[in-house]
């Protein structure tokens, strides 16, 4: 679900920033996300946006997660937060990671992507009142479904488990049955099933999901992709409500000792994936980082994702240890990573039935709110409705302010790229 991006996109972003991907392991050797660069004096972060760091690579993603998480715990967004998100939408319904000039029309060079678009759909569905904009975004996603039933990060790109899963969440959020959305006779669940490793006790990666096949068509277990695919296979989105999960019948308390589901249904694949995640947790309760040079370090974000996935699968017993570990060790990571991290932790606590306002002594909801607009909206009467887009329909709502200045130095740009890559979690 969370802070993640494909290996191909990693290379693209690094090239865009003028740096090599070889910088990432050194920068992330401690297994935690580096602090995102603060806005330079020549930049101004748009009013209504959560987080004060450069939104170039994650603006829509972090905004969407913040809105979804706040709604999940009954909180209203800060002033202008929904306006900001609406202003990022292109006329064709898609969203890019961030558009500095939200008043300009999107052209063929606009870097729209499925992850930002699907995340925005889930956020708009959560806050309500913007059905037309959400449906327009869903229409773009449907138009760009691959023949295998899935989605890649970019339109027409090879399908991957994470992108397919976040789109499933978007479809579910607007009340559509993901299994009924087919291309060439294949559904998103078919695409996920093709990325599932066989479940056989004692074999490496048993029951896990791969992010994508390798060049030879082989599948390698990926915990980040598995967490996303478990949730996606169950037709869930970012928000998993405690007490309403258990579609797989649970993966077993130990995970590793759980019996494999022999069927081919999405629920069976989710069961096996959840068992893999439960078995992959260390004795202390966390998932290890897959980043080169940091393999023995905890991966806080993926551990939070695993809690959501295990809760969705009904393995509430298996969520206890990773949740307890997160309560003790989330602080530095969340403070560095910002609103998306706080939102992710809120969603993990919510899924497991734990109070996010007292998460190891931390009020996650308050911390998230502190990263956004100070004024809390008492009601949504001032939020633009479906008919308030400007004449050409490009903004999808009230036009927002622009991020000023283009003089971001190479070092800051490289740091922004690395922060984004960590935020989108590199796949194997």
UniProtKB/TrEMBL annotation:
<protein>
    <submittedName>
        <fullName>Prenyltransferase/squalene oxidase repeat-containing protein</fullName>
    </submittedName>
</protein>
<feature type="transmembrane region" description="Helical">
    <location>
        <begin position="398"/>
        <end position="418"/>
    </location>
</feature>
<dbReference type="InterPro" id="IPR008930">
    <property type="entry name" value="Terpenoid_cyclase/PrenylTrfase"/>
</dbReference>
<keyword id="KW-1133">Transmembrane helix</keyword>
<keyword id="KW-0472">Membrane</keyword>
<keyword id="KW-0732">Signal</keyword>
<feature type="signal peptide">
    <location>
        <begin position="1"/>
        <end position="26"/>
    </location>
</feature>
<keyword id="KW-0812">Transmembrane</keyword>
């Amino acid at each position: 679900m969370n802070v993640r991006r494909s290996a191909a996109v990693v290379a693209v972003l690094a090239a865009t920033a003028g740096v090599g991907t070889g910088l990432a392991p050194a920068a992330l050797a401690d297994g935690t996300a580096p602090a995102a660069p603060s806005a330079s004096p020549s930049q101004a972060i748009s009013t209504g946006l959560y987080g004060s760091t450069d939104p170039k690579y994650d603006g829509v993603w972090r905004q969407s997660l913040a809105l979804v998480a706040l709604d999940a715990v009954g909180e209203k967004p800060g002033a202008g937060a929904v306006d900001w998100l609406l202003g990022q939408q292109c006329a064709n319904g898609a969203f890019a990671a961030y558009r500095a000039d939200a008043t300009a029309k999107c052209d063929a060079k606009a870097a729209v992507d499925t992850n930002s678009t699907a995340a925005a759909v889930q956020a708009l569905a959560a806050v309500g009142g913007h059905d037309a904009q959400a449906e327009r975004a869903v229409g773009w996603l449907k138009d760009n479904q691959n023949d295998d039933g899935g989605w890649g990060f970019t339109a027409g790109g090879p399908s991957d488990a994470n992108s397919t899963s976040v789109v499933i969440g978007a479809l579910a959020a607007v009340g559509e049955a993901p299994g009924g959305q087919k291309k060439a006779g294949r559904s998103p669940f078919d695409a996920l099933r093709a990325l599932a490793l066989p479940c056989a006790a004692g074999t490496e990666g048993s029951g896990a999901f791969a992010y994508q096949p390798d060049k030879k068509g082989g599948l390698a277990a990926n915990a980040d992709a598995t967490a996303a695919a478990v949730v996606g296979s169950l037709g869930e989105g970012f928000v998993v409500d405690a007490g309403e999960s258990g579609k797989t019948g649970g993966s077993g308390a130990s995970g590793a000792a759980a019996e494999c589901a022999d069927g081919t249904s999405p629920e069976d694949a989710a069961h096996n994936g959840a068992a893999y995640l439960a078995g992959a947790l260390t004795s202390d309760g966390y998932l290890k980082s897959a980043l080169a040079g940091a393999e023995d370090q905890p991966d806080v974000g993926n551990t939070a994702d695993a809690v959501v996935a295990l809760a969705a699968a009904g393995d509430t017993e298996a969520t206890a240890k990773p949740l307890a570990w997160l309560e003790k060790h989330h602080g530095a990571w969340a403070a560095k990573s910002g609103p998306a991290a706080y939102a992710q932790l809120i969603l993990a606590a919510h899924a497991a039935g734990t109070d996010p306002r007292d998460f190891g002594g931390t009020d996650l909801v308050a911390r998230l709110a502190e990263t956004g607009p100070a004024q809390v909206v008492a009601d949504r009467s001032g939020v633009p409705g479906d008919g308030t887009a400007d004449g050409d329909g490009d903004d999808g709502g009230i036009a927002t302010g622009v991020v000023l200045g283009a003089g971001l130095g190479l070092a800051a740009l490289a740091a922004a790229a690395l922060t984004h890559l960590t935020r989108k979690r590199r796949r194997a």
